[in-house]
Amino acid sequence: MISYIKGQLTTLEEGSITIEVSGIGYEILCANPFHFETQMNKEVKVHTYHYIREDNQSLYGFRKKEDKQLFGQLLNVSGIGPKGALAILGTVSVPEFVSAIEQEDEKYLTKFPGVGKKTARQMILDLKGKLIVWLPDEQNEETLFYQEDLTSREKRELIDDAIEALKALGYTEKEVKMVRTQLEKSKQGTVDDYVRQGLQMLMKS
């Protein structure tokens, strides 16, 4: 298994990044590739999950080790594949997801792409009690707190990543400043959602 890859980040695309190590480029699928935007052409370390099937071998990459570990746990749930697991990790923090599992909040879990009531119930049955190590200490002992919407801090971080992606596409600081104001008023979404919204705004201006 390939536990992690450390090398130069040479390519960033929608859905993946490429890291060069000793002349070999490793394509790594990621939930939010633009999280690595500020590290272009620099040395990075990415935690990887080597997914192997008879007809497919893919590398999935994560900034944090716990994200990789949760990805592996999700793949053990019937009805969840790599694409679905990556979509979940791209829209929620690990503690927030674990809180939902421990609270058995099916309504929250069905908000993820491709997750219906049956799959949400299966996730709860398979994962409850196995992930609490990733909860803050106070949440292990008291009522588990989480919000159905992203917190202001988390949303701001996602918008920051989207703004950096727009700059990488050639837009100026002045142009993206207007976009940021509008995105902050929009509903929650992923980095890719904010990038698409930002592009639409910029093309109309």
Explain what you see:
This protein is α+β, with helices and mostly antiparallel strands and 205 residues long. The protein folds into 3 domains: 4-62, Beta Barrel (OB fold (Dihydrolipoamide Acetyltransferase, E2P)), CATH 2.40.50.140; 66-141, 5' to 3' exonuclease, C-terminal subdomain (DNA polymerase, domain 1, Orthogonal Bundle); 152-204, no CATH class. Helices cover 45% and strands 20% of the residues. It is built from 9 helices and 5 strands. It has helices at 65-75, 82-89, 94-102, 106-109, 117-127, 137-141, 152-168, 173-185, 191-204, and strands at residues 4-13, 16-21, 24-29, 43-53, 56-62. It has a 5-stranded antiparallel beta sheet with strand order 3-2-1-4-5, with helices on one face. A hairpin with a 2-residue loop joins strand 1 (4-13) and strand 2.
